[in-house]
Amino acid sequence: MTKEFEKIILIDDDKINNLINKEIIRQFNQNIEVVIFERAPEALDFFKKNPKINSCLILLDINMPIMNGWEFLQSFRNLSLKIPIFMLTSSIDDYDMEIAKKYAEVLSYIRKPLSVDKLKNSIALINSK
């Protein structure tokens, strides 16, 4: 069964990156709604208020102020939502990739910049499982 996403939640504090990534997602599939949060706590509040949300994917940055990606993941786990997460990061530290593997929710680790091919390949990978 192929997983189709109606919505991609982009959690990243970089406004310019968010604009670029939104355009890349639209190039990938113009029917996907893109919801952007520049602060991880705001994204958490969104998920708390929308516990029945489905057909979505989270693209999560690691290095953010207030709450980083790892802290978001810890809090997100408490919500018990079954939403796939792709880490989307500029981190080139292999240690970050190893940490990401410890989270069952994290299905892909994408190094910035995002591209249509990287997004397509990551989604194809989860669809092949």
* Number of beta strands: 5
Radius of gyration: 13 Å
Enumerate how many helices there are, as a single number. 5
Strand content: 15-25%
Corresponding CATH superfamily: Response regulator
Largest sheet: 5 strands, parallel
Series of secondary-structure elements, N-terminal to C-terminal: EHEHEHEHEH
Helix residue percentage: 40-55%
Strands side by side in the biggest sheet: 2-1-3-4-5
Secondary structural class: alpha/beta
- Level-2 CATH architecture: 3-Layer(aba) Sandwich
Number of domains: 1
CATH class: Alpha Beta
Euclidean distance between termini CA atoms: 9 Å
How would you describe the shape? Answer: globular
Q: What ranges have pLDDT less than 50 throughout 5 or more consecutive residues?
A: none
Fill in the CATH topology. Answer: Rossmann fold
Mean pLDDT: 94
Q: How would you summarize the topology of this molecule?
A:
Layout: E1 7-11, H1 15-28, E2 33-37, H2 40-49, E3 56-60, H3 69-77, E4 85-89, H4 94-101, E5 106-111, H5 116-127
Describe the protein in words.
It is built from five helices and five strands. It is of the alpha/beta class and 129 residues long. The protein has a single domain, classed as 3-Layer(aba) Sandwich (Rossmann fold). It has a five-stranded parallel β-sheet with strand order 2-1-3-4-5, with helices on both faces. Helix 3 links the parallel strand 3 and strand 4. Helix 1 packs across helix 5. The chain is globular and about 30 Å long. The termini are close together.
